[in-house]
Write a structure and sequence with these properties.
The strands form three sheets. This protein has a seven-stranded parallel sheet with strand order 3-2-1-4-5-6-7, sandwiched between helices. Strands 12-9-8-13-14-15 form a six-stranded parallel sheet, sandwiched between helices. The protein folds into two domains: 252 residues, 3-Deoxy-D-manno-octulosonic-acid transferase, N-terminal domain (Rossmann fold, 3-Layer(aba) Sandwich); 188 residues, Rossmann fold (3-Layer(aba) Sandwich), CATH 3.40.50. The protein is globular, with a radius of gyration of 23 Å. The chain is an alpha/beta fold. Helix 11 packs across helix 16.
């Protein structure tokens, strides 16, 4: 699937489909958009392995590690010209060599939660906006505390970067409210600093339910559920030992282990949970990976659990597969206990009662929007102190099983309908920008 990038929507900040949450976002989004898309991928080879090769054009980012001379050249060029975005233009290759698309979408939902990502996010946003391309931050979750940095001095580099997006789509209410509050305060400070020019300006509430854009200097902010709530699924043959409707799906990640406040407590909690399920129920346990990157591979901690308890014949390992295939396995579970956000979204969206072992605002925000509260539905990994903590919350989940499933069966269809608004927003914006471009071409021709 190849096309003229000028007539394609650019999707960027995609780390690769080995993270099946990243794959799920792109997969769902491509099914919503009317226009063809070109995906700039950090690990393009992974995207060819799973579902995305049929849905969009895939462009592999160029790596400085593989081109040392180019690295030296661009480093010298940047030092001389102070053109910081030149690094990103090189990495994105002919995306910037061809006539530019009017629209580029940053799709890494929680990228702004990671300090290591902030520079690339800012430079990519800058590179596109310098070319006149409108940028969208899609399906984002951002820690509210990050947005409060430097409020008194207006020196928050994250807010400065975010202000250059044309549209920001928050996937849960905690991020949405934090963004609205941060930009409202930023606008108040801006008005105060330019009071003589703004005395007659109407003051509008940035948290208006109509989500209108307040001024040309601030992004439009909307709240729409993660597009992956609409992801389809494929049900492959389940392995021996997987009992449909009576299996607990379990996912754990190296990432939450890094966030624990008590060393080793995460795995101790999972071990106690498995022992309790084996000792007190007749349910099987399916170990389900959702990220399989070499340096961040769910299969490593899951394999440790399997080896410890395989003699019980109550555990099965689910192999790596596409986001749709993994969702198919999850959909056949009775309960799900997971760390990866999009593994839990797969469970929620197929009405499986779910306990999230979370580490950030995204887990709390999604649970709050679905259930009205995160209590009992999200167990922050930072709060784990006792090896029985996970067992206690799982016992509550079992007691409330029917109520939770019934609630999800009522809630999810509407939630999925809301999630489709992402496609409506993107399609509308694309048509608007395309018309502006055609009008500009027409005016140029007349001139």
């Amino acid at each position: 699937m190849k096309g003229n990038h000028q007539n394609q929507i650019i999707l960027y900040m995609h780390a690769g489909s080995g993270n099946h949450g990243c794959e799920a976002i792109v997969n769902s989004l491509c099914h919503m958009m009317k226009e063809d898309a070109v995906l700039v991928s950090y690990r393009g080879n992974e995207d060819w392995q799973y579902t995305l090769k049929e849905l969009c054009e895939i462009k592999q980012e160029r790596s400085f590690e593989e081109h040392k001379l180019a690295h030296l050249f661009y480093y010298a060029y940047r030092m001389i010209t102070k053109d910081a975005a030149s690094f990103l233009r090189y990495r994105y290759g002919d995306i910037f060599k061809q006539p530019m698309s009017p629209l580029a979408i940053s799709i890494g939902g929680d990228n702004y939660c990671y300090d290591s990502m902030l520079s690339d996010l800012r430079l990519a946003n800058l590179a596109f906006t310098q070319k006149g391309t409108k940028t969208v931050l899609l399906g984002c979750s951002i820690e509210p505390e990050l947005l409060k940095r430097g409020q008194e001095t207006q020196s928050n580099p994250i807010l400065e970067d975010l202000s250059h997006y044309h549209l920001i789509i928050a996937r849960e209410s905690l991020t949405y409210e934090a963004l609205c509050d941060a930009f409202a305060k930023r606008r108040e400070q801006s008005n105060s600093n330019n009071n003589s020019n703004n005395n007659n300006r109407n003051i509008l509430n940035i948290r208006s339910t109509s989500n209108i854009q307040i001024t040309p200097d601030f992004p439009r902010i909307v709240q729409i559920p993660d597009p992956a709530f609409t992801l389809g699924y494929v049900r492959k043959k389940v392995p021996d030992g997987f009992w449909k409707g009576n299996t607990v799906g379990v996912n754990v990640s190296p990432l939450i282990q890094k966030c624990e406040s008590v060393p080793g407590i995460t795995m101790k909690c999972y071990e106690q949970l498995i022992e309790w399920i084996i000792g007190h129920t007749d349910m099987q346990i399916a170990l389900i990976p959702h990220v399989v990157w070499k340096n961040n591979d769910d299969r490593k901690p899951l394999s440790g659990l399997y080896e410890k308890y395989k003699s019980t014949e109550r555990l099965v390992k689910i192999p790596d597969g596409s986001c749709e295939e993994l969702k198919g396995y999850i959909s056949q579970c009775r309960f799900f206990v997971g760390a990866r956000t999009h593994a839990t979204i797969a469970a929620y969206s197929t009405c499986v009662p779910t306990l999230v072992v979370g580490y950030s605002v995204k887990a709390a925000g999604i649970a709050k929007d679905l259930f009205g509260s995160q209590e009992h539905y999200v167990l922050p990994v930072q709060s784990l102190k006792d090896p029985q903590d996970l067992v206690c919350e799982f016992q509550w989940l079992m007691e409330q099983e029917n109520l939770i499933r019934e609630h999800l069966q009522k809630k999810i269809p509407d939630y999925q309908e809301q999630a489709l608004r992402t496609g409506e927003e993107i399609n509308h914006l694309w048509e608007e920008l395309k018309q502006q471009r055609e009008t500009s071409y027409s005016d140029t021709s007349v001139t």
